[in-house]
């Protein structure tokens, strides 16, 4: 019978603990969503200091054509003009946080606008992508994996 009051207190406290946990999880989701948008903006504006901060040293960046870069190679490709972004529109963004708010899996849809093709036609890519971010205690959220896939052009 002594266990009954303890169990009752535990059952009454469970919804409060669950709410507190989901509120914390929601904060992490919102933080990662904002960081995704900031990272895309940094790729467009060529903010190398920001990109150096948000890309983990062991980054694996797989482009939609299958080419793979590490962090140094990918940032250098932006510096060299091989990866050029005039604008990146985020169309869909879904963040799931795991492992005590230390790992985030992001999937979304973006449209990348690049300089026009040599014939003057627009150079637009519609991509679906997956990102894994890990929260480093000293550096904050960092991208450790990027994988994207081109989507077919929308028919008018």
From TrEMBL:
Gene3D superfamilies noted in UniProt: 3.10.450.50
Signal peptide: 1-20
InterPro entries: DUF4440, NTF2-like_dom_sf
Domain DUF4440: 32-143
Native species: Hymenobacter persicinus
Protein known as: Nuclear transport factor 2 family protein
UniProt keyword annotations, A-Z: Signal
